Amino acid sequence: MSKKKETQKQEEKINKSQTKTNHTEQEQHTSKPEQQVDDIPEVKEPQEVEATQESEPTQSTETPQNEKIGKENKETQPADEAQSKDKKCEEAIQDAQDEKELLKRQLEELNDKHLRLIAEYDNFRKRTLKEKMELSKSAGESVLLGLLPVIDDFDRALEHIDSAKDINAVKEGINLIYNKFQNFLKQQGVTEIETKEQEFDSETHEAVTKIPAPSEELKGKIIDCIQKGYKLNDKVIRYPKVVVGE
C-alpha cells in the first residue's frame, strides 16, 4: 500500500510539472502573435501614399538648394568684405600718392621762390653797395664844386694883396670870402657850436682847462674857446675846446 501511495505522489508531481509547462507554452504562443501584430507595418491609404510621395521629393530637392545658397552666401560674404577692403586700400594709396605729388609740387615751388629770393637779395645788396659808393663819390663831388668858388676868391685876393694900397679894402674882401664860406657850410648842414658864456656840457664841449671865474655868474660856464666846434645836422663832428670858469 505504501508503494502505491509513493507512485501516486510521483505521478501527481509529474502532472503538475506538465501542466506548468503547458501554461508557459500557451503564454508564449499568445504573446508572439501580439509581437507580430506590433511588427506589421501600417497600411496607408492611396491618397496618403501619393501625398507622402509628392512631399518627400520636394523636401529632398529644396533643402539641398537652401543649403547651397546658404553656403554660397557664406562664401561670397568674406569675398565681398575682402573686395571692399582692397578697394579702400587702393583709395588710400591713391590719396597718399596724390598728396605726395601735391607736396612735391609745393616743395619745388618753395625751392624756386627761395632761389629767386636769394638772387634778388644778392642783386639788391650789390646794387645798394654800388649806390652807396656812387653817392659818396657824388657827395664829395658836390662839396668840392661848392668850395671851388671860395678858392677862386682867395686866389684873386692873394693876387691883389701885394698891390693893394688900402688895407681896409683887403680886410673887407677877406670878410666877404669868409661869409661866403660860412654860407656854403650852412647849405651843407654844417653849423658852429655856440660856446661864449654858455653852460658847460660834456656831451657837446671839451674842457681843456679850468680857471678862476672872473665873476660869480661865470662859474661853471665857458669863459674862452680855443678851437671852434661844428655839427653836421644834429651830429657833433668836432667838439669845441673851451676854458671853463670855477
Automatic annotation (TrEMBL):
The keyword Chaperone applies. SUPFAM superfamilies: Coiled-coil domain of nucleotide exchange factor GrpE, Head domain of nucleotide exchange factor GrpE. Pfam families: GrpE (PF01025). Residues 52-64 have a biased composition (Low complexity). GO terms for biological process: protein folding. CDD domains: GrpE. Residues 1-15, 22-32, 68-91 have a biased composition (Basic and acidic residues). GO terms for cellular component: cytoplasm. It is found in: Cytoplasm. Residues 1-91 are annotated as: Disordered. GO terms for molecular function: adenyl-nucleotide exchange factor activity; protein homodimerization activity; protein-folding chaperone binding; unfolded protein binding. Keywords: Chaperone, Cytoplasm, Stress response. InterPro entries: GrpE, GrpE_CC, GrpE_head. Belongs to the GrpE family. Participates actively in the response to hyperosmotic and heat shock by preventing the aggregation of stress-denatured proteins, in association with DnaK and GrpE. It is the nucleotide exchange factor for DnaK and may function as a thermosensor. Unfolded proteins bind initially to DnaJ; upon interaction with the DnaJ-bound protein, DnaK hydrolyzes its bound ATP, resulting in the formation of a stable complex. GrpE releases ADP from DnaK; ATP binding to DnaK triggers the release of the substrate protein, thus completing the reaction cycle. Homodimer. This is Protein GrpE. The gene is grpE.
